[in-house]
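Sequence in, structure out. Go.
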Amino acid sequence: MAQLRSFAPMPSAMNISTTFLDGLSSSEGSNLYGLSLLTGLAGILATVYAFKSTDEDGVPYKAGIPFIGAWEFYSRRNSFIQEGIKKLGNVYSFRINRHKVWVVSGENARNRFFGSKNLHFAEGYVILNGDAPSLKDIKVNRNIEDGDLTSWFGKRITACLRRDRMVRNLTLMFQDLDQITEKWAGNGQFDPFNDIYNAVFQLTIRAASCREIADDPAAVKRVMQLYWDMENGVSAASRLLGWFPSTARKRKQQATADLYLLLKGAIDKRKEEGRREDDSVQVLLDEGDGVNDIIQFVMGALFAGIINTGIMSSWLLLFLAVNPEWKTKVLAEIREFVSKYTDSTGSMSSQLAQLPPQVWEEEMAVIDLCLRETIRFVMTGSLLRRVLPAQDGEDMSFEGHKASPGTFLAYSVTSVHHDPEIYPDPLKWDPSRFERGEDKKAHWAFLGWGVGRHPCLGMRFAKLEVKVILAQFLMKYDYSAVDAAGKPVDILPEPDRDNLSRPRPVKPVYIKYQSIVA
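Output:
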């Protein structure tokens, strides 16, 4: 069983200054502005940096870099938050530029965080994270105003992911996977955090964008490259130093512009030809949405869908590799449904595509247990909200401290998913804990698909993606986990929980496979 990493001691002033300077230097390279800034700040930070005991609201305070804020919230977020909880308690504050942020944890905070209507869901991510691609970054206007964007996006994602549309897409999804796995003929090994992510990219593009791209491998590859350019174009420096002429920000803007032009070209050509397709872009066109709004939707859907599904698909395959009893149970479940619902002719992909939608959504109980436990184990970090002016007299207080409107809240997922009082031996991967009802020991003790006022709108499709990838792979390949030298891995390393977009194992682990079905 993996061991919980010990908390590092609180860094000194000089260490924080060095972390900041190193991060800025590596992010911005030889940028002349960066050199000037480094020269000006180098002597200041080590002497000015200091800890305050409380903020203006009397909340325990974790200080950051003067005038900038908590650099580590972006460079090592999970560690930063867990160290703060250990040192300062279930409620503490820090600054991100001019913004006040409270970290909250525990059951009472959880009930308020997920149950209150006086918290804004989107602003927490848009303002604090700022990593999702936005047409505003390239000065392209949308028809939908910011205040209506969350509601509009929710309605459109629901329309695009209706069950009937997902059923029609199943055959195409398995055809996509067949093309992806062609290179896995015979035997070999691959990095799931590359190859499985590529599969998730393809399936998400299939579901959330347009057939012109989904049917073109070169276009899919281009979108993937632009996606990672946008993801890698976000750094602590680009988030905290909005005025800084960051090369990371320029990289993200260029990738956003290139993806915009790629999508706009496909949509414009379809409109010019008067052609209709059975895809999400057509759903939005039929709703009367403008091209720029459709492009923003596609960008947002790709960004929201790819990261988490890629993480869970990759880790689930690895957990099954080192837990053969669960791998056997999952494989038996899939084979049972194939035998029950298909005619056992044709390719394995065509047989899996014949399974009724209710099987994928409701009847794969063993896979659901394994996926749920994988999410609990891997999903840590924090979820974000912003306090709104109270409209019903609700007092937005946490452990006696009242959060004023405009305050950002970060709820620690680790505080519940790894709570030994709820989940004994929390760093052991054990799907049977959900059969025992461990998640029912406390209210909203499992946060994987959202709870309260903000359930995950893409949950049904995300589950389908994971199950389709898992079923296809298990039915076609026997496999195991190995290290970089090709030696068997029996105990998986911990996830790098500070890597928000791709929390790989802290030591590389690969999938070694042998084809068993042509």
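Check: Residues 174 and 349 are 6 Å apart (CA to CA). Residues 1-36, 42-51 have pLDDT under 50 and may be disordered.
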